[in-house]
Amino acid sequence: MGTAKTPVLWTTGAPGAGKSTTAWGLYRRIVEAGGNVAYVDIDQLGLIGPPPGGGDAAHAIKAANLLRVLEILRARGAAQLVVSGVVDPARPYIESPGFDLTLVRLTCDRDELRSRFLGRGSPAAALPALFEVADAYDSAGFGEEMDTTGQHPDETVETLFHRCAVDAGSVRPPEPRQPLPGPVTVVTGPTAVGKSTAAFAALRDLWERDLPVAYVDLAQLGFAHPGPDPALEAALLSAVWRGYRDAGAKHLIVVAREFRPEHRRVFDAVTVVHLDADEPSLTERVRRRAEGESALLAGDELRGAPPGVRDRVAARAIAEAARTRRSGDHVVLDTSGQEPAETAAALLAVLAQ
Question: Which domain of life is it from (predicted)?
């Protein structure tokens, strides 16, 4: 008798259609119900450039990394997997016997798509390209179409929730892996210090220099319940770096609030760069994050947070910074009073070494 397939519910659609919002809401809904579940944003699995990472190779790199990640999550015992992100209209499916895929293509009328797209801060100049993508998706007709026109995101989530497996199941530890070679640079620092902003700006600069560099935000590999699970994060980090190396990457930048021993064992050599900041700077950056001055990622606890939550997060960030100053196993960049561009330039100088 064969092993049961693991269900995968994948939300896709044009930018602004609600695929990430729906998938994240679905993941949270299953967590609240006590399910053993994991969420993966496929866009986080293709952050490698320039070519071979960019252009036509991007879909293939994401798909290969997605399969690696899903296999690890399946082996860990996940009863339901949730995926979001753009697919290749020419080849939109996971080809693996271990998974039972439901691909849901979210749509809405053009007026609402325009409103959602602009409402998330995207530029009006990109609307023609958006509608071109939406038309291409409609023409390809892949997956199950789900019209969300006039729906609140919670309604969309609730509809899809009833199609998911909610099973506590059992959690199995990931298989041990051999350390992978670098060079690997890990950017750490307290909450809201500006790690992702600085690291991604430095990454784009390196791409412009035609250097094949890949990027991983470790927090985006940690959406699994029950959790958190550093050993699982390490296994996923290893799998994604292996995929990026296969695709031609020569250097990896990892962003992590905490870089634990489990994570460190993924690599044979690591340079850790710690971004530090004083109390006024951290407090101000928490405020900016809460007011939307950063890219919106899954699990962001600060976007739109009220003052009480901001104060608690700022206090935690200040404590994190103080605790890390007592450890001396990293390069420290003091970013107090800096604008993001200044921090990115300082980080780039360290990477250039």
Answer: Bacteria
